[in-house]
From TrEMBL:
Protein name, per record: Protein kinase domain-containing protein
GO cellular component: a single term: nucleus
One of the GO BP terms on file: mitotic DNA damage checkpoint signaling
A Pfam family annotated for this UniProt entry: Pkinase
Domain Protein kinase positions: 1-124
Coiled coil: none
GO MF entry, a single one: ATP binding
Top-level taxon of origin: Eukaryota
Length: 124
């Protein structure tokens, strides 16, 4: 805990983290959702441990890829369809994301095609 944080702030952060863990766990397995390996709530920093999604050991968001013109028009359409698919899955489980934006979509290259594939994050 930093000098600006209070125990109340830390407790709120712990509740938020546990809520996000519960939501992502309830959503189940989907190729465009993060896989949770664990959660740290008893020590600082609090953290959610998920499978790494990125490109060559770097996390790349949709926002960053768009800013760098790293995504082709065809790949943009593919990414959009996959985001729609994961949102359909999220909604079918009775949840809403409420913060869809480029920084909450992490991209990875899981196939030899070189196309990016999205993973929707931040369910807190």
């Amino acid at each position: 805990m930093t000098h600006n944080e209070t125990s109340e702030d830390e407790e709120r952060a712990r509740r938020d983290l546990l809520h996000e863990t519960k939501v992502v766990s309830a959503l189940g397995d989907h190729p465009h959702l993060p896989m949770i390996f664990g959660v740290v709530t008893k020590a600082s920093p609090l953290c959610l441990v998920t499978q790494f999604h990125g490109v060559q050991q770097e996390s790349v968001t949709l926002h960053q890829a768009a800013d760098n013109n790293a995504v082709t028009k065809a790949n943009c359409i593919s990414i959009f369809k996959k985001i729609c698919s994961v949102l359909d899955h999220v909604h079918s489980k009775g949840y809403l994301h409420n913060d869809i934006k480029g920084n909450n979509v992490v991209l990875e290259r899981p196939s030899a095609s070189g196309e990016f594939s999205p993973v929707l994050i931040d369910f807190g």
